[in-house]
Amino acid sequence: MKTLERIGQFTVAQNRNTYHLRWTNKNTRKQESESFGRDRARAEAEAWRRMAALVSPGDLIERPNNPTFEELWHFYCREKKPNLSVGRVRRLDEAYKLYFKPALSNVPASELPDAIRMMRDRMLDGWTGDNRDNSRGARHRPIHPNTIEDVVNIARATLNFLLDERIITGPSPVPTIRVAGRTAPIDRDPKGRHLSFPEIGKLIDACEFRHHLHMMLFELGCGARSGVFTPMWLDQVLWDVEAIDTLPEGWKQGKKYRPVVPVSGPMRWAAAEATMTAGPDQQLIHYRSEGLKGRNGTQIIQRIAKRALGEEGAVNVNWYSIRHTLIDWLEMRVPAKSLSMLAGHVAALDTRERRQMRNNDGSKTTLIYLQAKLTHLDPIRKALEEEWWPTIQMHCDLNLRLNDPTAGDEWATARELGKKIDAKKMQLSRKWLKENNR
């Protein structure tokens, strides 16, 4: 067998086209193995799972020598991961793969303080980690000082946690490590530049496909964060209260809150058109009746911007450009509380209220209650319909149909269609998308 990777006392090996996990049984002192077919990732995952199960406070205390960072990392993750968000867990796994495994995995605990500082200096000199996945493009820029400080302090926190828990003894706790060049959030460069109304008009006119236009109008109407409208299902349109729930059913709120946003202006006929042409996967934004995949949203805005503004004008133009432009425009026109709820900086509705929005019985009393929960959207909808959309219409050739009565009829037709969507069919659609990595 060919040894591919060592994970603690376990070895991932390859024999022809199959992968095996090998280890030594401490009781019989014989080597044992388990086959995982052609799935190397499953073999590695099983090795990590077994290592985490083996590492315990008693095991480490009884070791005659200093445990390595790799052994400490298993225990740290075992204690911390259950209390972390999915995004933070993914961040820990990426940090270990890129930085900790090549730089710290074999370093004993007594030498970790100096090794962590050496890793910091190496990153400042331009090291971007090993085993980086370049499938989405190689990294050419150096790592930002903020990221370096975050990474090295994760390693520092691992050592300090085990010292606090008396898992290991010897080295002194490492104080917070600061990195020169770190910037505060208010001093950082914005993710996207502001747009003028003529530029917004050009972006709308440059949408060659209907799903490009739908995404553009939705973003212009609510300033949602990047990636919100790509994975969106039909049942997220709240037809009775003229709003859109940006949190798909079954998803948990993350650090960046997904709000309920108002439907205004051309968003009505765009939502109706997208609903009536949706495919079997029941996704709101679709091309040829099939929902979008992966990073299509980023590619869409990049292509639209280059087509509308040229190579130079499209620099730093993205979905965040629309978000920042809209929020800054609304700042002097709507109450601060309403704006914070639209931007997702303040939670406006809890899980129970969101569920009531989607599964209401249609009675007048229920609608009055639900509409009262969304009164914070009224000044935003008014400002958009009276100033925002008419100003954009002045700078684009496309007819936004702001005063077209047939847009209301299309909304009503799509509403009846949306009410007929089978909840069980929607769940099967989500399950199929998940199984096919969509």
Describe this structure in words.
With 438 residues, the chain is α+β, with helices and mostly antiparallel strands. It folds into 2 domains: 55-187, DNA polymerase, domain 1; 197-435. Helices cover 49% and strands 9% of the residues. It is built from 17 helices and 9 strands. The strands form 3 sheets. A 4-stranded antiparallel β-sheet has the order 1-2-3-4, with helices on one face. The protein has a 3-stranded antiparallel β-sheet with strand order 5-6-7. A two-stranded antiparallel sheet has the order 8-9. β3 (18-25) and β4 form a beta hairpin.
Q: Briefly, what is this?
A:
With 438 residues, this protein is an alpha+beta fold. It has helices spanning 40-54, 57-61, 69-80, 86-104, 112-124, 145-164, 197-205, 210-222, 267-276, 296-313, 319-330, 336-343, 351-358, 364-373, 378-393, 405-419, 423-435, and strands at 2-7, 10-15, 18-25, 30-35, 237-238, 243-245, 260-262, 286-287, 290-291. A 4-stranded antiparallel sheet has the order 1-2-3-4, with helices on one face. A 3-stranded antiparallel sheet has the order 5-6-7. Strands 8-9 form a two-stranded antiparallel ribbon.
Helical/strand content category = alpha+beta
Strand content: 5-15%
Uncertain segments of ≥5 residues (pLDDT<50)? 56-64
Spatial order of the strands in the main sheet?
A: 1-2-3-4
Number of helices: 17
Helix percent band = 40-55%
Shape: elongated
- Radius of gyration based on Cα positions: 27 Å
Order of helices and strands: EEEEHHHHHHHHEEEHEEHHHHHHHH
Number of domains: 2
β-strand number: 9
